Amino acid sequence: MSLEADARSMRSYQTVLIPGLLQTAAYARATISAINMTSTPESVDALVEVRRARQAVLTRPEPLELWAIIHEAALRPRMPVGAPVMRDQLQLLLDRAELPHISIQVLPVDAPPHPGLSGPFAVIGFPETADLDVVLVEHLTSALYVEDTAEVSIYGSAFERLRAAALDFDASADLIARTKDQLK
Fold first, then answer.
1. Phi, psi of 36 (to 5 degrees)
2. Which helix (H) or strand (E) holds 111?
3. Fewest beta carbons less than 10 Å away: which of 2, 30, 103, 183?
4. Higher pLDDT, 68 or 41
5. Is the pLDDT of residue 180 over 90?
6. CATH class name, domain 2-182
7. What does the domain layout of the chain look like in residue ranges?
8. Who's near 69: CB < 8 A, 6+ residues apart?
């Protein structure tokens, strides 16, 4: 949370989930409950509140610049996230994509092989210098923070390749809207 608060930018690639900074409370609750298999309802509620508090970086006076590439698979409802929750979640994506500091692209399921096949990651940029960028790779029980300049550069290049393979902004918004409209 403190990394995001100090950050100027974030470039995020997600494979099967909507990025946390773009999640509705209902979507966050459903996914946190599924991932944290032994959590109590109270601890899930607390984690949802933390996730919602993290989103304040998108509405502060100098908001975080977020560029999210979301694999098309993440747009499809599945258990525990049903159609009503997913409809609201997709609408939130469409709303956030209208903001000047948020860019959302969808990586289609038929994209050619790409570096994102190794899994989701986020490159967090800071205002001082690009040498201080950090890569965040989250796991089931922990997170890896990559700070080595050469490794961060590799993740930056991987993000650029994903960006090039993803749909453009208008086509991404159209796919999100069509997917939302298909949900009953």
1. -90, 75
2. none
3. 2
4. 68
5. yes
6. alpha beta
7. 2-182
8. 11, 12, 13, 14, 104, 105, 106, 107, 116, 159, 162, 163, 166
What pLDDT, on a 0 to 100 scale, did the predictor assign at position 130? 57
Q: Is 118 exposed, middle or buried (0-12, 13-18, 19+ CB in 10 A)?
A: exposed
Rounded distance, CA 159 to CA 101, Å? 18
Residue 89, token pair as written in the block: 């979640």
- Render 55-93 in DSSP notation, one character per residue: GGGGTSSS--EEEEEEEGGGGS-BTTB-HHHHHHHHHHH
Q: Residue 130 and residue 157: Cα distance in Å, rounded?
A: 13
Each as own residue / partner, the long-range contacts of residues 126-131 (CB below 8 Å, 24 or more positions apart, any chain) are: 126/6, 126/7, 126/8, 127/8
Structure tokens at 174: 């159209």
Q: Tokens representing 8?
A: 């100027």
Q: How far apart are CA 166 and CA 159, in angstroms?
A: 10
Please tell me the predicted confidence (pLDDT) of residue 92. Answer: 98
What is the rounded distance in angstroms from the CA atom of residue 57 to the CA atom of residue 70?
Answer: 20
Q: Is there a cis peptide before residue 80, judged by omega within 30 degrees of 0?
A: yes
DSSP state of 113: P
Residue 45 to residue 68: CA distance in whole angstroms? 25
For the cut 80, the answer to whether the pLDDT of residue 141 exceeds it is: no
Task: Give dist(CA 4, CA 57) in Å, integer.
Answer: 7
- Percentage of the residues of the chain whose pLDDT score is greater than 70: 97
